[in-house]
Design a protein that fits this description.
Aminopeptidase, alpha/beta
Amino acid sequence: MIASGRRHERASHALGLALFALLALPSGCQSRTTVHADGARALARVVHQVDAGPRIPGTPGHDAIEQWIAAELGSLGATVERQTFVDSTLGRPLTLTNVIGRYGPESGRRIGLFAHWDSRPWCDQDPDTSKRRTPLPGANDGGSGVAVLLEVAEQLKKIPPPCGVELVFLDGEDLGTSGNIAGYSRGSRAYAARATTAPGGPIAAGFVFDMIGDKELSIHPDIRSARDAANLTALVYDAARAVGARHFHPDPRWDVFDDHVPLLDAGIPAVDIIDFDYPAWHTARDLPDQVSAPSLAEVADVAVWLVTKSPLALGH
């Protein structure tokens, strides 16, 4: 992902007040829910991904993690689909694959949870210039979102959701540069293009999880999510209140180009759930020691509520 303008750009005061007013409206689902997510298990999955090596398209680590994600989903009761496509963002054709795990009813309303599983080819933001051409470890940037979605799968195996759920592991998110923004979100673009012509139509809503394992977790809506999908932004905050998640905040803070943007551009309501205030972003320090089991568990609890207990999931 990339931030537009200043990395820590804040939304306008007016937008923040408008969103706060929306979030203050009464909600029919304010009761706390039992916490089920296993943060230690999620963190172990982060470690597994980093230990596999760089998940750069065309490398052994990339191939290994694709197979691992599909196997994990299969063992957790999902119907697994691979969306394979060829992309030439890096100047040569690369085979990229979105891995999708489906749960719940095959017809009717569907909700998508998204995370990218590839890792960046370069640590281009590292303060040590000698490391800027080395592959990103991708513990938080990639690994945390994958771990959270697999933790959601753990819960959906035990408690079938009331609506259709797609857990979408996107490939090719992090191939772009500041001079080539088109290199970002290749998997999201491919998913969105297929979704608009799918037999069942596109999903009703998408929630993107990216860089959500930071030990100093602080999740704010990004500006475009708050502007273009205010109802879903409010729903995420409702989810946080329902499960007692303390590190979700209502005021928009970041202007981020991430996997939600191609979804929004295709007419699919979507929001980005991200903690962009992460000092190890795109550096060699993006290692498992920067990721927290409690943070992963908190975000996973929010994700589970969205697809099992929210008014959107229940059809209210």
